[in-house]
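User: I want to check something. If I give you two sequences, will you return the structure for each one separately, not as a complex?

Assistant: Yes, each is folded on its own. Here is the first sequence with its structure:
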Amino acid sequence: MQQRGAVGGRGCALFPLLTVLIFQGVHVVLSLEINADAHVRGYVGEKIKLKCTFKSTSRVTDKLTIDWTYRPPTSSRTESIFHYQSFQYPTTAGTFRNRISWAGNVYKGDASISISNPTLKDNGTFSCAVKNPPDVYHNIPQTELTVTERGFGTMLSSVALLSILVFIPSAVVVALLLVRMGRKAAGLSKRSKSGYKKSSIEVSDDTDQEEKDECVSRLCVRCAECLDSDYEDTY
């Protein structure tokens, strides 16, 4: 009798431990991990993406649901702005009406959304909730969105970057031209010092160039004379 009592006592003592182990096993099997950026910064009028990813131990089915909610910084009231279950259901009311779009892929564990034409009034806390039965246990991450106007510093940095992209290639081209001109001048100086005589081809090229310059000068003089004659005729 005492042995049976001892065995029974041990069984009763092991029962809570088995219960804890079984609960932990179920907890692991039915877990759903969701991740989102804690802080997101955006600018007025520029599209903002709120990232949200999830990892599920179960296969994605048409029972999977995604819900995004928004809470203003000065209120405890939350409003639903997006719902997904096989199809996308962005909000059709409130301040986010026609401005929320789907930017995720449930088969890749992506539950992200985008906000079009953000304003300063969109500042607040956004929550991403995902359910994929039988994975029922999950966390709900929150994202603090801060929307601001683009400042002078940001605009200046963009202008500076553009200036650098334009200035550097131009400076390189000018430097190459200067080097080439310097080499050419040095070559001519050496030739003149050594009593170098031009070949017949070089002489003919120089003659042709002189004739072209003379023709251009004559043409300019003739045009000036024509203009003077027209001016005198008018009077």
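And separately, the second sequence with its own structure:
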Amino acid sequence: MSAGLVLYTAPTPNGHKVSVFLEELKAAYGLQYDVERIDISKNTQKEPWFIKLNPNGRIPVLVDRNRNNFPVFESAAILLYLQHHYDKENKFAFDKDSDPDNWSEMIQWIFFAHGGVGPMQGQANHFNKYAPEDIPYAKKRYTEETKRLYGVLEIRLQDRDYLAGPGRGVYSLADLNVIPWIRFHKIAGIETLDEWPRLKAWVERSVARPGFQAGITVP
């Protein structure tokens, strides 16, 4: 029997954001989902059937069979959609009506990652490992900007365990939206995270969660 949700994905940072959250939801609520692996090396995501789900032709895409096969694309948008519909106890977020400040902080860090870490590290990854020619300027530009963004996270984690939430913070979408990118720091030309000890500890703490460990094996 098919599950209520199907994730079209590949083993990339953006793909792992969603699979990690789905595994966290599975552990917390028993949520079940199906997975369809998309072979991006063959440009499956550019085929007409996929473009109908996501006109941008990128993974991941979530289709919610429980809600008339409603499709959702863009990884951060998928996280917010899943949280709204399937995290009824707000175990991974904050109630925007009763806890608006913590909700806003979470959204701010999601946007920071979605507009900064993902695009900049994505370019660093490309020019350091996948580009067909060596372009030192591009490698330096994007690797240095990725390091700067890691520094911003280090500042935020100065006296906190997680990016959003009261006190020292609580594990939320703000964290799992960006850590899948940081896990791939070596591809971006950043050999270790030792320069950012708080960030390093935060990554290790979060990745050690069973849900995180399960999510990064998908698909």
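Because they were folded independently, the notes below concern the second chain alone. The first strand starts at residue 5 and ends at 9. Strands lie at 5-9, 34-37, 61-64, 70-73.
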